[in-house]
Every structure is written in structure tokens, then in C-alpha cells.
Amino acid sequence: MNPNYDVNPNFSTKALDIWTEKLSYFESELSLESDAEKKFKLTKKIEECEHNINRIKQNILDTRVNNLESFSVSKDIIIGSIPFWKKEENIFASNARE
């Protein structure tokens, strides 16, 4: 999956649920299995599930961070929202610290 585009959080959450369900199923099957070859295949499927779960969680996290960054407010907008009599106090306060 390309991390440079937005991930639909609903799709990601659904995919996460599916992979988590698969993981749970494979882990329970592994605990019941006695054949070495089948255990090996189940172990590989469990590794695949864990990999995909981690990838999806990272995509969800990256999407949330990107969404937060897109809502960041610049200093000019914040200063523009301060009443003019407070701006002067702000300027003197910042000069006094320097």
C-alpha cells in the first residue's frame, strides 16, 4: 500500500478486524494441530496476519497524523484572531523574554 495517499479509515478498520479474526482462528488451529507440516503452514499464516495487522495499524496511525497536520493553524491566523489591544501586550511580552 502506498503511504502517500489517504487511507479510508473505515476500510482500514474493517480490514484490521478481518486480519485479527484470521489471526485468532489460525492461532486456535495451531494449538490443536499435531502434524508438523500443517503447523509450519499455520505458523506462516500467523506471521502474515501479524504483518498485515501491523501494517494496517501503521496506516491508520499515519492517516490520523496526516489529518491532524492538515488542520494545523499558522501563527498568522492565531495572531489575527487576537484583539488589537492584546496584540501590543503580546509584542511587549515577547520582546521582554529576548
In brief:
This protein is mainly α and about 100 residues long. About 80% of the residues lie in helices and about 0% in strands.
How would you describe the overall organization of this protein?
This protein is 81% helix and 0% strand. It is built from 4 helices and no strands. The protein has helices at 9-32, 36-70, 75-80, 84-97. Mean pLDDT is 76; it is low at 1-6.
Sheet with the most strands, sense and barrel status: none
Radius of gyration: 25 Å
Structural class: mainly alpha
Per DSSP E runs of 2 or more residues, the count of β-strands stands at 0
Order of helices and strands: HHHH
What's the N-to-C terminus distance?
Answer: 47 Å
Helicity level, as a percent range? Answer: over 70%
**Approximately what portion of the residues adopt beta-strand conformation?**
under 5%
Mean pLDDT: 76
- Please mark out the parts with pLDDT under 50 across 5 or more consecutive residues, or reply none: 1-6
Provide a count of the helices.
4
**Shape call:** elongated
Give the secondary structure arrangement, pairings included:
Elements: H1 9-32, H2 36-70, H3 75-80, H4 84-97
Helix pairs in contact: 1-2
